[in-house]
C-alpha cells in the first residue's frame, strides 16, 4: 500500500511551514572593525579617502 502523493505533499508542506528559521550567533558573525584613524574603510568612498589624505589622516607609502 503506497501513500497518496497529496498526503506526502501536505505532510512536507506542513513540516516546512512549522520549521523554525536558523538564527546565527551575532557575536560570532560580526566582522572585525575596519577602522583606520577614524575612517571606516568598508563604507568610505573614494572622495572620503581623498579628503582624509588631504587632511593628513592617511598617507601613501609612495609619497
The secondary structure category is mainly alpha
Q: Assess the beta-strand content as a share of residues.
A: 5-15%
- In whole angstroms, the N-to-C terminal distance is 81 Å
Number-wise, the strands total 2
Query: What share of residues is helical?
Result: 40-55%
Average pLDDT works out at 77
Low-confidence stretches: none
Within the largest sheet, what's the order of strands?
A: 1-2
Shape: rod-shaped
Oligomeric assembly: single chain
Q: What series of H and E elements makes up the topology?
A: HHEEH
| Gyration radius from CA atoms, angstroms | 26 Å
Biggest sheet, open or closed, and with what strands and sense? 2 strands, antiparallel
Output the number of helix runs.
3
Verbal overview:
This protein is mostly helical. 43% of the residues lie in helices and 6% in strands. The protein has three helices and two strands. Strands 1-2 form a two-stranded antiparallel ribbon. The longest helix is centred in the first third of the chain and has 14 residues.
Spell out the blueprint of helices and strands.
Layout: H1 5-18, H2 26-29, E1 35-36, E2 39-40, H3 46-54
Antiparallel strand pairs: 1-2
List keywords for this structure.
mainly alpha, 63 residues, rod-shaped, 6% strand, single chain, two-stranded antiparallel ribbon
Give me a quick take on this structure:
43% of the residues lie in helices and 6% in strands. It has a two-stranded antiparallel ribbon with strand order 1-2. A hairpin with a 2-residue loop joins strand 1 and strand 2.
Amino acid at each position: 500500500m503506497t501513500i497518496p502523493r497529496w498526503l506526502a505533499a501536505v505532510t512536507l508542506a506542513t513540516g516546512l511551514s512549522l520549521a523554525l528559521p536558523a538564527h546565527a550567533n551575532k557575536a560570532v558573525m560580526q566582522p572585525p572593525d575596519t577602522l583606520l584613524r577614524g575612517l571606516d574603510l568598508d563604507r568610505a568612498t573614494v572622495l572620503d579617502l581623498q579628503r582624509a589624505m588631504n587632511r593628513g589622516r592617511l598617507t601613501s607609502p609612495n609619497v
